[in-house]
Structure formats: C-alpha cells, structure tokens
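Hey forum,

I'm writing up a methods section and want to include a predicted complex as supplementary material. The small molecule is zinc ion. I've pasted the protein sequence and the SMILES. Can someone with a working setup run it? I'll credit the forum in the acknowledgements.
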Amino acid sequence: MTDDDPAITRVPDFDCPRCGYTCTAVGTTDGTAGAPTPGNVCGCMACGFPMMFDIDPLTGLLRLRTMTPADVDTLSEDQMRELTRVQHFAQTWTPMQRNRN
Ligand SMILES: [Zn+2]
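Reply by user p_vandermeer:
Happy to help. Structure tokens for the complex are below, copy them as they are.
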C-alpha cells in the first residue's frame, strides 16, 4: 500500500476509543478512488467502532471523530447500510491487512 493509492486518504492519527487501534489513513470500502467528505461515515478498521469525518476547526483539515448518538439520528439509510458494511468488514480483516497502512 502506497501513498499514491487513490482509494486511500491520509487523515490525522485517530485512536479508536474502543480498541486503541490508531487510524492513520482511510480507504473507501469498495476500493474505488475518492476522498471522504465531512459527514461521511467510517468505522474503525480493527473493531468497526463507528466514526465520522468532519473538519477540525483548528486546522481546517479533514479528521475523524467518534460518532455521537445525535449523529446516528441523522444518518440516512444509505449511511446506515455503509456503516453496517464497514463493521462487518472490520471483523474479517487480517492483522496484516490492518497493518499495511
Ligand atoms: Zn477499534
């Protein structure tokens, strides 16, 4: 996995509050090119903990943050489906796949 992979977007390090896994980059779940935008859903690569992208008010950069119950209330059906898919994926990833980023 290299930095040129169009399906991978670098984000500031984010430690999963559930399992402690440090997420440094994210990819779209279907491997297609495209950067996440604020409001997109994401899951911890190790445990599937629900997270969301937003813009850090201090740096103006895209970052990950924990999904709040209020966020969950506003999710569309598509986002819910996406999140379910990420959580399913996370449990099938091998340690090697998790470490490649
Ligand atoms: Zn986790």
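Some notes you might quote in the supplement: The helical segments are 69-74, 77-90, 95-99. Strands lie at 8-15, 22-27, 41-43, 50-55, 62-66.
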